Amino acid sequence: MKSAHLESRLLGEIEKVPVIDVHSHVPHDAPFATSLRDLLGYHYFTELAHSAGMAKALLDPETPDAEMMPALAEALRSFDNTVQYGWLMELARELFDFQHERLTRENWRELDEAIRARGNRRERVREILQKASLEKVFLTNEFDEDLAGIDGGVFVPSLRADRLVFQLTEKGVCESLARVTQSEIGSAAGLRAALEKVFGRFEAGGAVSVAISLPPQFSVFPVVEGDLDTAVGKAAQGKPLSAAETVTLHCGVLFAMTELCRQFEMPFQMMCGVRRGAYRHGVYQGCDMLQAGDTLRNLMPLLNSFPEVTFCLSVLCDGQAQELASYGWLVRNVVVSGHWWYDAMPAYMERDLAARLQSVPKTKLLGFYSDMYKLEFGLSKFNMYRRLLARVLARDFVEDGRGTEVEALEVARLLLRENAVRIFRV
Amino acid sequence: MKSAHLESRLLGEIEKVPVIDVHSHVPHDAPFATSLRDLLGYHYFTELAHSAGMAKALLDPETPDAEMMPALAEALRSFDNTVQYGWLMELARELFDFQHERLTRENWRELDEAIRARGNRRERVREILQKASLEKVFLTNEFDEDLAGIDGGVFVPSLRADRLVFQLTEKGVCESLARVTQSEIGSAAGLRAALEKVFGRFEAGGAVSVAISLPPQFSVFPVVEGDLDTAVGKAAQGKPLSAAETVTLHCGVLFAMTELCRQFEMPFQMMCGVRRGAYRHGVYQGCDMLQAGDTLRNLMPLLNSFPEVTFCLSVLCDGQAQELASYGWLVRNVVVSGHWWYDAMPAYMERDLAARLQSVPKTKLLGFYSDMYKLEFGLSKFNMYRRLLARVLARDFVEDGRGTEVEALEVARLLLRENAVRIFRV
Amino acid sequence: MKSAHLESRLLGEIEKVPVIDVHSHVPHDAPFATSLRDLLGYHYFTELAHSAGMAKALLDPETPDAEMMPALAEALRSFDNTVQYGWLMELARELFDFQHERLTRENWRELDEAIRARGNRRERVREILQKASLEKVFLTNEFDEDLAGIDGGVFVPSLRADRLVFQLTEKGVCESLARVTQSEIGSAAGLRAALEKVFGRFEAGGAVSVAISLPPQFSVFPVVEGDLDTAVGKAAQGKPLSAAETVTLHCGVLFAMTELCRQFEMPFQMMCGVRRGAYRHGVYQGCDMLQAGDTLRNLMPLLNSFPEVTFCLSVLCDGQAQELASYGWLVRNVVVSGHWWYDAMPAYMERDLAARLQSVPKTKLLGFYSDMYKLEFGLSKFNMYRRLLARVLARDFVEDGRGTEVEALEVARLLLRENAVRIFRV
């Protein structure tokens, strides 16, 4: 009883904290839904529907609403037990006044119309953010993306490093890098100069961090300049690289970008452990998998090499949760960040959050980020996290005697807002 | 309070659901105990007794009851804290009216006599199943086993693939396969033809699935037909195989059997991650171990190659629980099945079950199977699971607002019965 | 309500059990703090302060109190959410009557003076032990340490094997071994004879066990005598060893010491999974890390080779918790021991303890050890464990119907005291 009251008081206060969401994939020029499809097209729903048996053809981007929506609404019944389904219903209720208990093939048009109607409102962005208690939302931007027109009052750009680090040999990437930086990418030095221009452009555009996702067991180590020269040269000329040269290129570019993080004083946000394309038959964005039995130790050479760079680390695999918390505990330049994707289910988050609060300095925790593609999901996802945070702080912090209710709220504010403000200087 | 009432109401309803137990080792011609030894001989008890210090000689199959039983009853005191001990006492009370608080060297004969008396009753099988709320129990049958005489009203055969995949080079296996299928096993084609006859025979005998247990880090990949020909040829002639040929044989047979699963529309039940014979000094069936730090990724080539085959996957290692749940979430032909052996302790099952209910479509979950050798343990093991299911559904599903009490019971019915009925078409 | 009362009754009784602490680093000639620095110098505090941003120079052993203490007290604010901070405040209150709610740069001298005053008391050791309900504390002693003067009424020496197994090639180690044993270390036989003398000396000095910490993925296997001869010969002469010879030396010495454990009937305490020096920029004793994705399987050859030796195993990585519990369940000569270092946070311990109590014979569990450097921390750390033990026994053992309140207390006594008494014969 006492516990339930405490938890509910904490939640009430937590809900008032204006959140800084440090990672999302929101497109700044289409940040909210203008149709039901914009919401149900989120890979969490299409992949679950497909996994539960919905025909892949019906989930094709070309399939018209009239076919796809009723079938998808029907498919929801197979996974209405999940947290993901809960996200959908909560935002439908809170943001679109959808009053039905379930979304069905009978009532989907009702929700679709409500979304379309609100999608026309001016100030819709701020309306959603206010309802969701979000103050600022980080974006993830490609190096060659145009940053003009981003509403800096709400959005904060981040430079996405994935293509530069892992896809420099793919068609058009070097060319695009050369074009946007007006540089010649034929050598390690040339590449570095181009990357520095990218960083300069992003800094000017308001970016405050760099972000990358890494495959499991990716080993990071310093490379020899001459080897990198060769690898970059071949990549720029579109020549095939050997396995060793590929590794050299990946590590060399990652080190170069980390060096620029140091120079531009930008934290590096790293999401560790995703196996891209593991499942061959999945839907769009529904083919990636985590890998059990993985370790973060391969990152240590990078963390050791750049003690001045802040690394905000996330993991995809629950089996690395303790290792990550221990990095936050011991390694000065590591910040423990959020709960990512497959790992962002309450059953995993609950123990992980409790352990972080027990063992990591409260100033080194970024509580949660949305990873969302449309702003609406920020409401549901952060509400899920807020409820969990209130529960863990009540039971594990206040009732266990580690702090008072007031101190618990201070911790909550650090996790939701203050640490992000300090670490990213937003 | 509210929570306890809800949990208890849910449990009351859950206990009424007639369960389909999709995996056991019950011998169809001796399915229940006719002596205490039949129960205490279960490896869970002999291995714990040995581990806690009981002399191995006393646990030898040749040791007469009068020596072994009192010593084993005495040894129980060292592990009367465990869940396994709880299974024993619960079934003794529920199925044999054993009223003592403990089983001791003084009272073991009383229980032994009660077991012997009931072992003579006609309809004992149905009596136990009714008490245990079990409707059907899957068996695990060797490819060369006689399926005649299996009571199809109660038992469902499964083809055990372990010997075919991993022990084809051992003495007598090829010969037995040739004999029961009246085939010549000298080539890949010959082997396939023989396997097809095995499947045909099992289908005719009422089998609805194939089952196998896999060692940790077993990599599954397609093999070249010529290589398989060579490997099968050598195996059939009893010639020694190289390491590469052995791998070819294992993968080739597994692929061939999976292809037959496709053809015969039988789900493939896979138990992943057991290291056989790891502990050299253990008792009978008490030498196998799990392995931390393992991954399911090596199965992916098989899952990708047979999108039409349903794979019901279990893991032995808690560290793979999240990976397995994520496979159920994403991969259409994966069903998440039960909690296996070392992993079937409530402390592990509780979080795992909560995570599955949060993230995997409810139609893709087989809640629990007994893995038992005698029907009596179905009562205790499923009761353990039912209590857990009621608790998790109460706290994590209903109270967390993901569904109503009625919906929670629908989920329970799917996990205990309906999904098995649909997936295995029983 | 019922649960809270039960838990509190259990805790009251548990607090009365005089504990045998089977592993610490307490120096027998300076076992308690004589200044605040003795407490705040514990690596848990310096590493967290450094991790949270405190300048490394301020944490240097040479930095005077007047500079270091106020800065460290200030730094505590960054991690006052942690369990480690809780340890400090609890012992300050209980052992030094420190009444402030927090330790600050304003009041640190007050605590410092209280520590200095009590540090002069005769009988301070017994005063602390009584307050902490500790009866005996195991020490960790180097092979060349003088054991004279150890108060055997309170302390129990253990032979630390780390330097012998892993650092025999480092300057001075062989020389020191030769000197203290008056032996010639030029061959495998010579080394064994010297080690036997070390064991004899430790047995005479009251030692009852050997202790070692092992790196992740250390593989233990028997070596060929001739190879060991060569490796020992080179080590003794200070010649460089090849990688293979190094491995031979490590395994050979470990096997030799285990053989002596057999001969002297001493349990071998093994702490598995620490990566020494992983973090390059850490403070003193603050550079070591765990590694996710690791397994205990590499120890199995040793466990199999010495069925008569009792191995008391601990792990650093939560991902190995289930594997370790399963070893305790199955492997007769394995005792599951405590919760080590990064893994000794309540969030990890709670589930691990529940699982051990569900699956491992109660006679094979050593509940907790302090790993402390000063006796004062025994109070806080064991109190943390006692609260957890009371909670898990209440909820998971008594309320789940696995035993009565009286039986729960029997289990607690085994875990805190009786098993240690029996296993180490103290």
Topology:
The structure is a homotrimer of 426-residue chains.
Chain A: H1 2-14, E1 19-21, H2 36-40, H3 43-51, H4 65-75, H5 83-96, H6 108-119, H7 124-131, E2 134-138, E3 155-156, E4 158-160, H8 162-166, H9 173-181, H10 188-204, E5 209-214, H11 225-236, H12 243-264, E6 268-272, H13 300-305, E7 311-315, H14 321-330, E8 334-337, H15 346-359, E9 365-366, H16 376-398, H17 405-424
Parallel strand pairs in A: 1-2, 2-3, 4-5, 5-6, 6-7, 7-8, 8-9
Please count the helical segments of chain A: 17
Helix fraction of chain A?
40-55%
User: What is the number of independent domains of chain A?
Assistant: 2
Mean pLDDT of chain A: 97
The biggest sheet of chain A, with number of strands, parallel, antiparallel or mixed sense and barrel status, is: 6 strands, parallel
Largest interface: A-B, 38 and 42 residues
Helix/strand class of chain A: alpha/beta
Strand coverage percent of chain A: 5-15%
The strand order across the widest sheet of chain A is 4-5-6-7-8-9
At the third CATH level, what is the topology name of the largest domain in chain A? TIM Barrel
Order of helices and strands of chain A: HEHHHHHHEEEHHHEHHEHEHEHEHH
User: Kindly, what is the distance between the CA atoms of the first and last residues of chain A, rounded to a whole number of angstroms?
Assistant: 40 Å
